[in-house]
Amino acid sequence: MPETFESQHSHNQLQAINDGLGAGMFVQVRQMLQNMPACDVALLLESSRSKSRAQIWQLLESDAYSDVLEELSEDVRNGIIRQMVPEKLADALEEMDTDDLVETLSSLPEAVSQDLLNSMDEQDRNRADLGLSYGEDTAGFIMNTDTITLRPEVSVEVILRYLRLRGDIPDDTDTFYVVNRHDKLIGGVALTKLLTAAPDTPIENLIKISEAIPVTMDDGEVASLFERYDWLSAPVVDEHNHLLGRITIDDVVDIIREDAEHSMMSMAGLDDEEDTFAPVFKSTQRRSVWLGVNLFTALMAAAVSDMFEETLSQLAVLAILNTIVPSMGGAAGNQTLTLVIRGMALGHVSPGNSRWLIGKELAIGFFNGIIWALLIASVIAIWKQDLMLGAVIAFAMMINMVAAGLAGATLPIAMKKLNIDPALAGSVILTTITDVVGIFAFLGTATWLLI
Amino acid sequence: MPETFESQHSHNQLQAINDGLGAGMFVQVRQMLQNMPACDVALLLESSRSKSRAQIWQLLESDAYSDVLEELSEDVRNGIIRQMVPEKLADALEEMDTDDLVETLSSLPEAVSQDLLNSMDEQDRNRADLGLSYGEDTAGFIMNTDTITLRPEVSVEVILRYLRLRGDIPDDTDTFYVVNRHDKLIGGVALTKLLTAAPDTPIENLIKISEAIPVTMDDGEVASLFERYDWLSAPVVDEHNHLLGRITIDDVVDIIREDAEHSMMSMAGLDDEEDTFAPVFKSTQRRSVWLGVNLFTALMAAAVSDMFEETLSQLAVLAILNTIVPSMGGAAGNQTLTLVIRGMALGHVSPGNSRWLIGKELAIGFFNGIIWALLIASVIAIWKQDLMLGAVIAFAMMINMVAAGLAGATLPIAMKKLNIDPALAGSVILTTITDVVGIFAFLGTATWLLI
To answer: Which residue has the higher pLDDT, A139 or A2?
Structure first.
């Protein structure tokens, strides 16, 4: 009888292994690891700090290495690879599927991957070189070459005989590809068609003309095609329509998650591959660039306030209220920025509708401006018993909300045109704009009207 | 010959249709729509503003309705459904797969979905009621019931004859499920096994015991199992192991994207389903709750500054520098918060390692504190020619960075225990903490040492 999954299953497993390691029960831990699927071992490694990672890896059978390495995230994998004996590593790499082999090699330092390539046998070196030649983030980089191809004139019966002799079909195969004698792709035949067709049907009658993916296509684009058309696999071709390999949904799922996470991580100034359990110093160092940029923008905002030192020294209440307008502008602008970045990722934003979109966000900024200007004016008029001060902050709020809507919508669209990642740079530039505009509008108007 | 995909393909299509609508060439647009796959029509609708959406929908053939509705995001779909004639809507719903039918009904107002259910024939009403009974975000809600089941004692040859007679296999089938006479799940047989096995092999020899998904499992958990084990489909069972249906990867891909997007959208205070092209007033209203919360926290920060009005009025330079420490705390805390939220989503954070994780982030906060305290002290000492002022801001920076690390790691872990969504509430509470602690530390120390 099959088991059903328990929600707490993997947490319990993790706990048991950690307890085992802590108590020095290495024999038991080794046994537990032997019974775990590779993906669970990978999750266990990713959920452990570096010390436990090294212990777990040492207790793992070496024939599990390649499967586990395939499942690990880049950062964790590289940490482990750096401590492996080169021969064992080369053995593990040779057993990998082409796409995982290529990905692993490309994430290693040039010198290391070159050494590894040299120690591989020719066939493995060739398939790795081919994948690497297409460059990261392309269809060629994530494709597999273990494709079964058919000829159009053969009958279903002959194919079934061939498959029974062959005895093995690569993982995640839902379609066989049909090619002509020059290896040019004609189309695909679904496995389900082979099962339901009469034995004497020629393959060509079962072909579904399917679109092929050019080997140079960006992997994010590949992922959105899979998502849109609900594919399980797709053929990859060169510019002359020669079949080179296929891409399967399991790799695409990883890209979809990574792309969706990328925006969130970048907007907080984190590297996508940042490992939750990385050592303290490594993490501190990695995050410092972003904090440095943030300090710079905070100093810029301070420099704007500095221009109004005279005003601030005369009216301390302005110093107290000085953060409100920038904060609201930042929050509203961030909403717009996030929405537009997601819209671009989903393929909804195009040159044809981006002007309309900017106009819409500008209008929202305007109405938000009215709402929050009225509200803050009332709050300040009551709190500080000063109508004029309320009017000043309301005016600044109005200006900054419109600026936030405009900047939040324009920045990502403009950055994408310039090939700058809007998730990474967008939020810093946006905050700088809303800070500077907010402070300038508030203290400027105050200097003019209240002093 | 199959076509390869052009990057600009869908944007061009969108442009052509928009141009056609603008020029009133409805006959041509209708023809273009007829030749488009449902998923492309859905993308077109999602990329258009409401006015064009209504026009495009009117030009669409009614037999395409159900396929297009299945592909649309919730917000856009509900907008269109609200304008459809009830009879046409009921027709479209009856043609949907169970999972899409259930999802559509559940997103409609109770009264509307009840009317629709009543107008359906009994069979469709029953399958909808069953799915709805499991509740949103469960395995039962996203499963399909179109499963082909086999008996263990039958031979491959008999199955192949049966399949040829049947002639049709449901979409995305990679595995047939084997059940005993009480409909209890025994395991699965991959389609590839049927193709490679000798005709006289009994099915029971080909069975792979696969884990089954309990019908009440949370859909996010289902998605991470699919991702971890690279499944294409999985059987769903009740508590007595009766086979109820199956879940396929195409639905899981949507959940993976939605879950990953959810954190990003929530952290900016947006609804996941927020439609990029929603009308201005609807968007303004939706975003106002978050801005209201943000205004409240900004006023709280102002109230803290207000406690130091006397100090601020004596030293205007404090007003100028007052935003730097809160800003750095916010940025550092947000990095920690984002990393922990992602770690929880990936299943890396568990009760067994969360204490270590909090300790790690606290340590990073401490080292970040030292680095940025030293740097800001030097900047201020040079800019304002005041060593003591540099020391004050450095001390406040130190305190706030530690507070940011602690709050950023503790908040999401505590919120998850309390079943509060950390992505939505986490960033507001974090900002409030880093603002209040930052201002208090800076102005408090300044009052004590400089006045």
So the answer is: A139
Q: Which two tokens stand for residue A197?
A: 């067709």
Alpha-carbon distance values, A222 to A133, A225, A251 (Å): 18, 5, 11
Distance of CA A63 to the CA centre of its chain: 30
* Of B68, B125, B73, the residue nearest B102 (C-alpha): B125
Residues A23-49: pLDDT tens digits?
888 888 898 888 888 888 988 898 888
Task: For residue A149, list its beta bridge partners.
Answer: A177
pLDDT at A235 over 70: yes
Chain A residues touching B166 at Cβ < 8 A: 196
Which of B261, B319, B339 comes nearest A274 by C-beta?
B339
Q: Which of B283, B294, B339 sits opposite A276 (nearest CB)?
A: B339
Domain ranges of chain A: 9-138, 149-248, 280-450
Is some CB atom of chain B closer than 8 A to the CB atom of A154?
no
Span of A232-236, A345-349, A382-386 with lowest mean pLDDT: A345-349
Average pLDDT over residues A313-342: 93
The whole-model pTM stands at: 0.85
The shortest C-alpha distance from B105 to chain A (Å) reads: 22
**Among partner residues B194, B287, B347, which is closest to A43 by beta-carbon distance?**
B347
The answer, yes or no, to whether residue B7 has pLDDT greater than 60, is: no
Portion 412-431 of A in contact with B at CB < 8 A: none
* Contacting residues of B for A177, CB less than 8 Å apart: none
| Pairs of residues, one from chain A and one from chain B, whose beta carbons lie less than 8 Å apart | 409
For A82-98, write each residue's pLDDT tens digit: 888 878 888 888 888 88
Question: How far lies A424's CA from each of A216, A292, B337, in Å?
Answer: 25, 14, 17
Here the tokens at position A218 are: 């960006």
- Is residue A411 within 8 A of residue A421, CB to CB? The reply is no
Token pair for residue B411?
């908040």
Is a pLDDT exceeding 80 seen at residue A322?
Answer: yes
Query: Which among A164, A297, A316 has the least Cβ separation from residue B198?
Result: A164
Architecture of domain A280-450: Orthogonal Bundle (1.10)
Residues 177 through 206 of chain B touching chain A, CB cutoff 8 Å: 184-187, 191-192, 194-198
Task: Tell me the residues of chain B between 255 and 284 that have a Cβ less than 8 Å away from chain A.
Answer: 256-257, 260-261, 263-265, 267-270, 274, 276-277, 280-281, 283-284
CA nearest B192: which of A245, A226, A194, A231?
A194
> Closest partner residue to B169 among A196, A241, A347, by Cβ?
A196
Q: In whole angstroms, what is the distance from residue A267 CA to residue A425 CA?
A: 8
Strands A243-248 and B149-150: unpaired
Q: Return d(Cα B29, Cα B13) in angstroms, integer.
A: 11
Q: Does B85 touch chain A (CB under 8 A)?
A: no
Task: Specify the fold of B10-140.
Answer: MgtE N-terminal fold (1.25.60)
CATH of domain A9-138: 1.25.60.10
Q: Do B260 and A261 touch (CB under 8 A)?
A: yes
Distance from chain centroid for Cα B12: 29
Q: Do B172 and A230 touch (CB under 8 A)?
A: yes
> Phi then psi for B277, rounded to 5 degrees?
-110, 25
CA distance B70 to chain A (A): 12
- Give tens-digit pLDDT for B167-224: 888 888 999 999 999 999 999 999 999 999 999 999 999 998 778 999 999 988 899 8
Q: Give the CATH fold of the A149-248 domain.
A: CBS-domain (3.10.580)
- Confidence label for A74 from pLDDT (cuts 50, 70 and 90): confident
Instruction: Tell me what ipTM this predicted complex has.
Output: 0.85
Q: CB B194 to CB A195 under 8 A?
A: yes
Q: Say if B149-248 and B280-450 have the same CATH topology.
A: no
Look at A214 and B338 and tell me if their CB atoms are within 8 Å.
no
